[in-house]
């Protein structure tokens, strides 16, 4: 059996009373450099753009999923809940958020009905998000029902890993084929500061459990913030040495209530410089046209390293994602404020064809790209816990 992934780092004290104080601290002189001296030869590795003409269409692909720019949307993210067992500071404001009353959230039957509508139209990948999707007591049943939908190839989940280790064996039996586990630090004290909760070891245990159950890769999502965890980037890369772990470094993104600060955002070019400086054997991998990540592997490492560059190098031209929120709203762009309710017409007796028309109209209104890094920060949008990522 492979060596267990164990976090061994010195105790860390924040020195900050609250997250706002952390965000307002000026970076050290020169620390905001976006120099590409090391990575100049890698600049050509932008994420590819997916176009309809490049996609392999099948008979069941509906025009409903094709926007006015020819992008084919075959990936649906479904938020199962707005509730979470952590209080991550970049996801939720300190005062918390108002949760949608339970009767206004989609029921399991409604989730499966809408998911079936999408899969029968050409969606072949569904990802379950939240909040924290594993806090739903019926998640195993939802997974089983979704995994049996005709045309679905991938059923994935994004989770904070707090309860995943004990639930994962059953989830796998119910058809869960892929998973992403969020972990922003390898230092327990930092974890407690950022999440306002304990549970670091539980997340580590979940990563180990996923590896032991044969998930390959086990994706670990890490939001990088200057002065908080940017000094751990290479430590995270080391996790990929002996295990099939894909560490995905994510640029810090603005959402309502998370007090986004550009000075705390570490750009992709800077992260890549750090990794190449310590791991000169880093090599670029070929991305799928719809990948949101730029993917790499260190020579001799079993796992991989990826960068999600939503802020500095967007990948809108290859976007194939739609989002169904827990309250039944359809969101066609993560950073766009526009939403349309599918719950209301569903509960008012709309048939499948009427729902397809509503979905198709929303998809056709999708813009070519999001507003750009600084305009995103000024655009009204829901807190991440409402959107589901």
UniProtKB/TrEMBL annotation:
The record's keywords, sorted A to Z, are: 4Fe-4S, GTP-binding, Iron, Iron-sulfur, Lyase, Metal-binding, Molybdenum cofactor biosynthesis, Nucleotide-binding, S-adenosyl-L-methionine
Functional description taken from the UniProt entry: Isoform MOCS1A and isoform MOCS1B probably form a complex that catalyzes the conversion of 5'-GTP to cyclic pyranopterin monophosphate (cPMP). MOCS1A catalyzes the cyclization of GTP to (8S)-3',8-cyclo-7,8-dihydroguanosine 5'-triphosphate and MOCS1B catalyzes the subsequent conversion of (8S)-3',8-cyclo-7,8-dihydroguanosine 5'-triphosphate to cPMP.
Reaction it catalyzes: (8S)-3',8-cyclo-7,8-dihydroguanosine 5'-triphosphate = cyclic pyranopterin phosphate + diphosphate; GTP + AH2 + S-adenosyl-L-methionine = (8S)-3',8-cyclo-7,8-dihydroguanosine 5'-triphosphate + 5'-deoxyadenosine + L-methionine + A + H(+)
Similarity annotation = In the N-terminal section; belongs to the radical SAM superfamily. MoaA family. In the C-terminal section; belongs to the MoaC family.
What cofactor is needed?
Answer: [4Fe-4S] cluster
Q: What NCBIfam families does its record include? A: moaA
InterPro entries given in the database record: Aldolase_TIM, Elp3/MiaA/NifB-like_rSAM, MoaA, MoaA-like, MoaA_NifB_PqqE_Fe-S-bd_CS, MoaA_twitch, MoCo_biosynth_MoaA/MoaC, rSAM
Domain Radical SAM core: start-end pairs = 68-291
- List, alphabetically, the SMART domains matched: Elp3 (SM00729)
- Gene Ontology MF terms in the entry: 4 iron, 4 sulfur cluster binding; cyclic pyranopterin monophosphate synthase activity; GTP 3',8'-cyclase activity; GTP binding; metal ion binding
The family database entries (Pfam families) matched by this protein are listed as: Mob_synth_C, Radical_SAM
Which branch of life, at top level? Answer: Eukaryota
The molecule here is called: Molybdenum cofactor biosynthesis protein 1
User: Where does this protein come from, organism-wise?
Assistant: Rhamnella rubrinervis
Its EC number is: 4.1.99.22, 4.6.1.17
Give the pathway annotation: Cofactor biosynthesis; molybdopterin biosynthesis
PANTHER family cross-referenced by the UniProt entry? MOLYBDENUM COFACTOR BIOSYNTHESIS PROTEIN 1, MOLYBDOPTERIN COFACTOR SYNTHESIS PROTEIN A
Q: How does it assemble?
A: Isoform MOCS1A and isoform MOCS1B probably form a heterooligomer.
Q: Name one GO biological process term.
A: Mo-molybdopterin cofactor biosynthetic process
């Amino acid at each position: 059996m492979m060596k267990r992934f164990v976090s061994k780092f010195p105790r860390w004290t924040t020195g900050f009373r609250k997250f706002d104080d952390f965000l307002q601290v000026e970076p050290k002189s020169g620390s905001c450099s976006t120099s590409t001296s090391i990575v100049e030869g890698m600049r050509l590795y932008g994420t590819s753009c997916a176009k309809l003409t490049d996609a392999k269409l099948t008979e069941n692909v509906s025009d409903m999923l094709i926007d006015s720019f020819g992008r084919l949307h075959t990936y649906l993210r479904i938020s199962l809940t707005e509730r979470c067992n952590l209080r991550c500071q970049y996801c939720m404001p300190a005062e918390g958020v108002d949760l949608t009353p339970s009767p206004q959230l989609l029921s399991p039957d409604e989730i499966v009905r809408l998911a079936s509508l999408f899969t029968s139209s050409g969606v072949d990948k569904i990802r379950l998000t939240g909040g924290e999707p594993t806090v739903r007591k019926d998640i195993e049943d939802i997974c089983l029902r979704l995994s049996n939908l005709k045309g679905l190839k991938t059923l994935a989940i994004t989770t904070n890993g707090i309860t995943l280790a004990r639930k994962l064996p059953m989830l796998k039996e119910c058809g869960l084929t892929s998973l992403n586990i969020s972990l922003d630090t390898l230092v327990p004290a930092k974890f407690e500061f950022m999440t306002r909760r304990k549970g670091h070891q539980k997340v580590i245990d979940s990563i180990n459990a996923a590896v032991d159950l044969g998930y390959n890769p086990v994706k670990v999502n890490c939001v990088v913030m200057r002065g908080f965890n940017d000094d751990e980037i290479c430590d995270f890369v080391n996790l990929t040495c002996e295990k099939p772990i894909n560490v995905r470094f994510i640029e810090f993104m603005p959402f309502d209530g998370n007090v986004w600060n550009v000075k705390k955002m570490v750009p992709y070019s800077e992260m890549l410089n750090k990794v190449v400086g310590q791991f000169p054997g880093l090599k670029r991998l070929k991305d799928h046209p719809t990948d949101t990540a730029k993917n790499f592997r260190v020579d001799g490492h079993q796992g991989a390293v990826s960068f999600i560059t939503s802020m500095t190098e967007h990948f809108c031209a290859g976007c194939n994602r739609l989002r169904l929120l827990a309250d039944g709203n359809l969101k066609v762009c993560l950073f766009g404020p526009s939403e349309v309710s599918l719950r209301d017409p569903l509960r008012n007796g709309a048939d499948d064809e009427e729902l397809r028309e509503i979905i198709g109209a929303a998809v056709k209104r999708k813009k070519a790209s999001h507003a750009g890094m600084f305009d995103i920060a000024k655009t009204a949008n829901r807190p991440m816990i409402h959107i589901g990522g």
